[in-house]
Design goal:
By secondary structure, this protein is of the alpha+beta class. Helices cover 33% and strands 33% of the residues. The chain is globular and about 40 Å long. It starts with a helix and ends with a strand.
C-alpha cells in the first residue's frame, strides 16, 4: 500500500469512528515544492493529522482551512506563491508555487 493509500485508509477509519474529516490534496506545483502533486493531508475536527502537503507554515494554514471547510462543507482551492526571499519562512525551501484542494469527506 502506498503512503497516499495509507492516508485515505486512515481518513476512512476516522470517518468510521464518527470523526468529521477533510482531505487536502496538492493539485499543482510550479518550481520547487517539498511534495509532488497528489500528496495528501487528512485533518479531523478534533485536530488529528495524517500525511503532508508541504511542511512548514503552509501545513498549518492548510489545516486551518480544512477546519473551516469541515464547518461550511464548501471545498476550497488554495494558491500558495512564495518569493525566494520568503521561501524559508513558510517552508518552500527554493521558492515556487503550489495549489491545494481542500474538501470535506462524507
Amino acid at each position: 500500500m502506498s503512503d497516499q493509500e495509507d492516508i485515505l485508509a486512515t481518513a476512512a477509519s476516522w470517518l468510521d469512528q464518527g470523526e468529521t474529516v477533510a482531505l487536502a490534496t496538492v493539485v499543482e506545483t510550479w518550481g520547487s515544492s517539498p511534495r509532488p502533486p497528489g500528496s495528501r493531508l487528512a485533518v479531523t475536527a478534533s485536530g488529528r493529522l495524517a500525511g503532508s502537503v508541504s511542511g512548514g507554515c503552509i501545513e498549518g494554514a492548510v489545516a486551518d482551512v480544512a477546519k473551516q471547510t469541515m464547518e461550511t462543507g464548501e471545498p476550497q482551492l488554495l494558491d500558495f506563491g512564495i518569493t525566494d526571499e520568503r521561501a524559508w519562512e513558510v517552508g518552500l525551501a527554493c521558492g515556487g508555487k503550489l495549489k491545494v484542494f481542500v474538501e470535506k469527506l462524507a
